[in-house]
Amino acid sequence: MKPFAHLFLMIPLVLSVVVSFAQQKPIEALDAEKLKGKVEHDLVVAQDGSGHFRTISEAIKAVRVYLPKPITVHIKPGIYREKLVIPGQITHVTFWGEDPGNTIISLDDYAAKDNMGTFETYTLKVLGSDLIFKNLTIQNTAGPVGQAVALHAEGDRLVFENCRFLGNQDTMLASGEGSRQLYKNCYIEGTTDFIFGSATAFFENCTIHSKADSYITAASTPQWASHGFVFMDCKLTADDGVGKVYLGRPWRDFAKTVFVMTEMGEHILPIGWHDWGREATKSTVFYAELQSQGPGSGPDNRADWTYLLDPNDLEKYQKASVLSGLGRDADFYGNRWYGYEKDSSFNLEASYQKDKKSFPQIMPVQLAVRPGIEMLENKVYKRLWDRSLKLDVFKPKIIEKTLPTVLLVHGGGWKSGDKILQRSLAIRLAERGFVAVPVEYRLSPEAQYPAAVQDLKEAVRWIKAHASEFGVDSSRIAISGSSAGAQLASLMGLSSLSVHEGNSDLSPSSRVQAVINMDGILAFHHPESLESKVAAEWLGGHYEQIPEIWEEASPAYLKNPTWVPMLFINSQYPRFHAGRDELAEKLRKAGVSVEIHTLPDTPHPFWLYQPWFEPTVDLITSFLKEIF
Questions:
Q1: Does the keyword Cytoplasm apply (predicted)?
Q2: What is the helix, strand, coil percentage profile of the chain, to 5?
Q3: Is residue 525 within 8 Å of residue 519, measured between CB atoms?
Q4: Which residue is catalytic, options 109, 130, 170, 193?
Q5: Domain map of the chain by residue range?
Q6: How much is the pLDDT for 5?
């Protein structure tokens, strides 16, 4: 992932910062010795002298330790014959090659050379944390001369994407107790134990290529670790003539290695695993497979001290389950460091199929844009590395004076959903004379609390900054949410805490003048609330672990809130308005307008269906016209 390029150098130099290979502006060469540990902007390495440095080692030497913001070191094509160490003080750097076919880091050290031993043979040694490597080849060209490491990785929260690791014996050491490493779309080749070490490492969609009859993995997982090596959706291949390969053998007694939905070539031996003379048992080594495929999968003949897992175990070996830590997993920008898979389980069709069983009379609402209404889609309001957050704007085509505006926040348990779920409501509100803005925000698989709240506040600032473009009256802005979106809208509308404001380059305030809550909880830890797992996934832990966060994220429990008028529209289920009555009483005592409407005999997502859609629009319209 590529961070912004507007990071700065805190020394008196004027530099041209390159943010992509496409740009061909001249770059001022830098002196690595003079700038040692001082540079905190993006860098370019090019052997032909067209970058800031000619070698990667010079760039590493120049980077400021414990960077205040992430940077990118762009590496132009070439074969960089260097022995590299990235020390533990170097964090939040992306090393971005152009292509693994032409951007190569290479050396040829091996264990018997000058009696250096296995652990000094590396081409690249990574001790720093929060680092990303993309589009690179890392190789050890010593040949079949014994142990010769290409990559030695020990840092935590390391990501290698679209990289190649080339060698023979001991190609890749994924090590370090507590180290978590992600290898995505990578190619790894070798002969013996060519993926070895103590790290928790997740291999996603990787090709693992054996060059000799031997062993693929040699894990040394510590006994306390829940996971060692996990291979998901990978492919095991081999050179011609190779036909006797083991999936792994235990370097230490409690080695853990699991292959999930991996295609195995015929070179994999039917027994699958080797015990390395340790008399391995199921109480020590944990070697397992789940839904292996291909001629080498042969589940019937595997060693009897290994496991064939049940499909019900699949969730335990998903990327998030393997790589999540004991605490929060946010990177500098609040995103999950290991990436995310979008959860699309909450959508109109799925909700309809579920709810029509209990409410056969319902009809899903899918309005089309009518003449007189203008739809402006996917306006980018916030950028985070190479991730953009977007919103849609629905408004009357002819605007004679600035209009009140409603931001619309979808639900989905803080982990699913899409802004398209608010489209019909946006169209109808635009027809009623409002500017209506469905907003995308980061969901819990991507980023934990408070990222979503900060996103919505930035959306308000952005709308105000572009008020003249859309005919928005910045003094009349409301935020409306449904379900989890209603909790977010309420928190965003009432809170002025700095943790919720986040950082912004936009000058307008994030203040709104009204909040509409459609079946969203106001208190997480409450007798009526049944939120547990989904709330914990978003908040970063269960109540017993982080009670202060659960309260901080509860609109009803905010200290020194900014009171604004609120409209509550609720279904028949009390669990979806936990904390509402307490908050409403506080609003009344503060002399602030509050309305509560309960729609009887309704499903939770009533706003998605007729016969409740139009009454919901009427309630919102009436409330906003009275407020504004």
A1: no
A2: 20, 30, 50
A3: no
A4: 193
A5: 77-323, 357-520+548-599
A6: 34
Question: What are the strands of the beta sheet with 200-204, ordered from one edge?
Answer: 43-45, 71-75, 93-97, 131-134, 158-161, 180-184, 200-204, 229-232, 256-260, 286-290, 307-308
Least confident residue range of 115-124, 417-426, 531-540, 560-569: 531-540
Half-sphere exposure of 397 (CA within 13 A, CB side): 6
Residue pair 108/145 in contact by the 8 Å Cβ criterion: no
Cis omega (within 30 of 0) for bond into 527? no
Question: Longest C-alpha distance within the chain, in Å?
Answer: 84
Name the CATH topology of 77-323: Pectate Lyase C-like (2.160.20)
Q: Domain 357-520+548-599 has what CATH class?
A: alpha beta
193 catalytic residue (yes or no): yes
- Single-letter code of the amino acid located at 292: S
**Would you state the pLDDT for residue 277?**
87
For residue range 517-552, what is the model confidence (pLDDT) as tens digits?
A: 999 999 999 999 988 889 999 998 899 999 999 999
Classified as helix, coil or strand, 594 is strand
Inter-residue long-range contacts of 379-383, CB under 8 Å, 24+ positions, other chains counted = 381/439, 381/458, 381/459, 381/462, 381/463, 382/455, 382/458, 382/459, 382/462, 383/4
